[in-house]
Amino acid sequence: MVSPSKQIFKCFGCGKGGNVITFVQEIERIDFRDAAKELAKQANIDLARYQIDPTKHDDRNDEKEKIKRIHKLAQKFFVEQLAKNHAAKKYLNEQRKLDDKIISEFGIGYAPDSHYAMIQELKSKGFSDKDLIEASLAKKSQT
Description:
This protein is mainly alpha-helical.
């Protein structure tokens, strides 16, 4: 059954359903990219202007990977700080009723009183101020 008003389809025989792209994929037995191209051609949409420059795409991926690495290292820093601070660990266990398994599973950490401890740790690993700002772990001083 095709519902033009909802722009979906449902086959009650096999149970498949979806949108227009899924419909074309199933009928033509093609992948997502080819279905999107076919629909664009039918709608007279020129996809050439939407092509991504692979060099820019790779640069963006490298930046994303760097930010992910920075965040993982920051999270690891906070987890290590929790392991060193018995009062914080006791608080989580007794007051918040979190056992060690939950603390570990969710990667719960502790931020020490030192404002710049994490920043210093990440900079010691080779990250610049610009990297930390782009990762939203630091901000430029307003002074």
